[in-house]
Design a protein that fits this description.
Length: 146
């Protein structure tokens, strides 16, 4: 497992700025949409390192977000399912995956994306060291971090 700290700069990521095919590497950002600022920060830092960044495309705030729900579910479950499928396709085209897990948090959607990336042999780097996982692959942040 690779780990990097956004505040301390990137480390242990892909060598150079070109992939094995001589093209800019593609990184897929995964994580909870509650961490939008971290998505933006990771996106520009990867871009400035020469990466093509694929990330979330829709953030729909709702009361479900406050309870840890998937924002797209406020639109419909069909929409949430479609967005999850689109994100798996983004993982397919990526050379590697970067998990945005502030305070070690990994929710159900992100856990499923990590599992999918592992099944497809994608290198995965975490923003922070993950907390121990629950049976469903999620993590529980420290009580003082929620």
């Amino acid at each position: 497992m690779n780990y990097t700290n956004l505040n301390g700069g990137f480390m242990e990521l892909s060598e150079g700025w070109k992939n094995a095919k001589g093209k800019p590497p593609i990184v897929c950002l995964c994580g909870s949409t509650r961490f939008l600022n971290e998505f933006f920060e990771a996106g520009w830092k990867f871009t400035l390192r020469g990466y093509i960044v694929v990330s979330i495309g829709v953030v729909k705030t709702s009361s479900a977000d406050k309870d840890g729900g998937h924002g797209a579910e406020a639109i419909s479950q069909e929409c949430a399912d479609m967005l999850d499928e689109l994100h798996r396709r983004k993982i397919d085209i990526a050379d590697e995956v970067f998990v945005i897990n502030r305070d070690g948090y990994i929710g159900k959607s992100t856990a499923a994306e990590i599992e999918y990336a592992n099944e497809n042999d994608k290198p995965i780097t975490y923003m922070e060291l993950p907390h121990p996982t629950n049976a469903d692959g999620t993590t529980t942040p420290s009580p003082d971090k929620e």
